[in-house]
Structures are given as structure tokens and as C-alpha cells.
Amino acid sequence: MNKTDETPDEAVEQTDAGLVSEDTEVGDDTPTETVTEVDKAQEYLESLQRLQAEFDNYRKRVISEQAGIATRANSSLIEKLLPLLDSFERAVFVAEKTKDAEGLIKGTEMVYAEFLATLEKEGLEEIKADDLPFDPSVHEAVMEVESADHESGHVVDVLRKGYRVGDRMIRASMVKVST
């Protein structure tokens, strides 16, 4: 049977059976397929945009929470240091009023002890250095000196104390080391 002998109904039946009619090219998208692909692409785009917006909101929320944590931690420490500020103000007031140098020295020593105790309660710990072997992980050598009283490579003098909180070093001890 020739193609020209086919009736339009027979051509449709053959197309439904998997044959291609002569006015349909292989690979042509029908309008329904094109709309479906466009819809899927639009759906993916909208999904991606929602995901990006959610991530942006999450990032902003985390930054805000971190700032809040830092503010609360700072507020807590400042609250603990306020009594020291009060003590310094009283010491300065009394020193100005009485012009008593010994009283000022004693008051300053008391405030220093109170300040140190407050920091120690927060976990501050002094890094020991005097007469110990030099340790570059906790000591900063700024000078080498000859010393008959100290072994070579030992700390002779501490120029600035070092501190740590827990396992974290806050500041290295600045030291002189014997040669």
C-alpha cells in the first residue's frame, strides 16, 4: 500500500502504533512537551530561589545570634568588673581629698588583688616563666643575657607576664633568656 493510498484515519493509526506520519519530523517537540519542560524549568528556578532565600535568612539569623552571644558575654564580664571600677573611683577620690600616698598605695594594692581575683574566677591563669627553661610556645624572648645564676636557655627575667584561659593562650610571657 502506498502512502498516497492511505486514508487520514489509517495514517493516524500508524502514528499511534509508533510509526511517523510524513508531516511529523523525528525529534519535533509537541506543544505539550515544550510546556511541560518550561514548567519544570520554572519549578526548578523557583525552588532554587526559595533555597537561596532560606539560606540567606539562616546566615543572617546565625550572625545575629553570634552578635547576641558576644554582647551577653561582654555584658557579663563588664558587670563583674564594675565593682573594681567603683573601688578605683573611691581610691582616687580619697587620694585627692587626703593627699595620703600610703593610703593610695594600700588602696591600689587592694583593688589590684580584687581585680586579679575577679579575672581568676573567669579562668585567667598566669603562665609561669621565672627560672624555667625557655618554651617558645608560651614565652616570647626579647633579649638574651649572660647569667652566672641561670642555666643556658632558661628565663632570667619576666618583662611582661603571660596569661591563658583554659588551654587557650591569651598572651605569651615576654622574657629575657640566659645564653
Account of the protein in words:
This protein is α+β, with helices and mostly antiparallel strands and 179 residues long. It has 2 domains: 26-122, Hemagglutinin Ectodomain, Chain B (Alpha-Beta Complex), CATH 3.90.20; 124-179, Head domain of nucleotide exchange factor GrpE (Nucleotide Exchange Factor Grpe, Chain A, domain 2, Roll), CATH 2.30.22.10. 55% of the residues lie in helices and 17% in strands. The protein is built from 3 helices and 6 strands, in the order αααββββββ. The protein has helices spanning 8-16, 31-98, 101-121; strands spanning 124-127, 139-145, 155-160, 162-165, 168-171, 173-178. A 3-stranded antiparallel sheet has the order 1-4-5. A 3-stranded mixed sheet has the order 2-6-3, with no helix packed on it.
Summarize the structure.
The protein is an alpha+beta fold and about 180 residues long. Helices cover about 55% and strands about 15% of the residues.
Highlighted features:
elongated, 179 residues, 55% helix, alpha+beta, Hemagglutinin Ectodomain, Chain B, 2 domains, Nucleotide Exchange Factor Grpe, Chain A, domain 2, 3-stranded mixed β-sheet
Order of helices and strands: HHHEEEEEE
- In which range does the helix fraction lie? 40-55%
The CATH class assignment of the largest domain is: Alpha Beta
Tertiary shape: elongated
- Tell me the count of domains: 2
Number of strands: 6
Biggest β-sheet strands, sense, barrel: 3 strands, antiparallel
- Structural class comes to alpha+beta
Q: Report Rg.
A: 41 Å
How is this fold's topology laid out?
Elements lengths: L7 H9 L14 H68 L2 H21 L2 E4 L11 E7 L9 E6 L1 E4 L2 E4 L1 E6 L1
Parallel strand pairs: 2-6
Antiparallel strand pairs: 1-4, 3-6, 4-5
